[in-house]
Design a protein that fits this description.
This protein is mostly helical. The protein has a single domain, classed as MetI-like fold (Orthogonal Bundle). 75% of the residues lie in helices and 0% in strands. The protein contains twelve helices and no strands. The two termini are 39 Å apart. 27% of the residues are buried. Keywords: Cell membrane, Membrane, Transmembrane, Transmembrane helix, Transport.
């Protein structure tokens, strides 16, 4: 009887999980396998893929070192700048804001996602172009200031575009904070600054790590912001992939870069999870 019951439960569980497993296998595992196969092939004379077994594409990765360098430098910097800006905002929303207006303020954080990133990035192109902020700076004596098509413009676009994704995990972590711990700290004579660094910040670090992992992983594959605000001068790995697959039609080399990017993303995620678990101890930490 118990065996039949367990078998029935197992079948029900398998039936419920099967659609998700099939989805992941078809849209995640199979494309990655195809990309892995392409990465050890050769470029056909007319472009595309030609069957072979060679690691020459991986040996040629230094040819795109500028894209890797820009990505591996600007993506972490952008993530940490997002963190510096996002934490005070999330802290105010979760701890200081009146419950009456909290939902409205959180909605305002999400509002930018209602508009296409392409439109918002084009708006920044105008603001950072010759008729925008540089023109205003020229009127007060700062002539020949160029912001657009520089790493600074790309960094600014990154922070603007991904800031809400950093705010929300931190906000959720702070919103779940037990206020009695703050009251206990104050009753024991701790000053607000000491309470923040000894209670609030440690308990919110899982949310911080979640935001950092989420934003960094997305930035590693970013294409639009470097393309528009970098003007073809600040290449990310995503720009290199578009060039190799759609213009150069060098699918094996593009696949090798994509496989390397996936390895980097997994490495970043594992590090973030390890740090988060160390910080949280036995508390449950969800990064994805």
């Amino acid at each position: 009887m118990a065996l039949a019951l367990n078998t029935k439960r197992g079948m029900v569980t398998a039936a419920l999980v099967a659609p998700a497993v099939a989805w992941l296998f078809i849209f995640l595992v199979l494309p990655f396998i195809a990309m892995l196969v392409f990465s050890v092939g050769e470029r056909a004379p007319e472009g595309g893929y030609q069957p072979a077994f060679t690691f020459a594409q991986f040996a040629n990765l230094p040819a795109r070192s500028a894209a890797f360098r820009n990505t591996l430098i600007l993506a972490p910097i952008g993530s940490f700048v997002c963190l510096i800006v996002a934490y005070p905002v999330a802290y105010y929303l979760a701890v200081k804001a009146s419950p009456r207006y909290r939902l409205l303020l959180v909605s305002l954080v999400v509002v930018p996602f209602w508009t296409s990133l392409l439109v918002r990035t084009y708006a920044w192109m105008y603001l950072l172009g010759s008729r925008g902020i540089p023109h205003l700076l020229g009127m007060i004596g700062f002539e020949d200031v160029r912001i657009l098509n520089t790493p600074g413009a790309v960094l600014l676009g990154i922070v603007y575009g991904y800031l809400p994704l950093m705010i929300m995990p931190i906000y959720v972590s702070l919103e779940k904070l037990d206020r009695r711990l703050l009251e206990a700290s104050a009753d024991l004579g701790a000053k607000p600054v000491s309470t923040f660094f000894s209670v609030t910040l440690p308990l919110s670090l899982p949310g911080v790590m979640t935001g950092l992992a989420l934003v960094t992983i997305l930035l590693l594959g970013e294409y639009l912001i470097p393309q528009l605000l970098g003007g073809g001068k600040v290449f990310f790995i995503g720009n290199a992939l578009v060039d190799l697959f759609l213009q150069s039609r060098n699918w094996p080399f593009g696949s090798a870069i994509a496989v390397t990017l996936v390895v980097v993303v997994v490495f970043v995620l594992l590090i973030a999870m390890r740090i988060a678990w160390k910080i949280a101890g036995t508390r449950q930490v969800d990064l994805v």
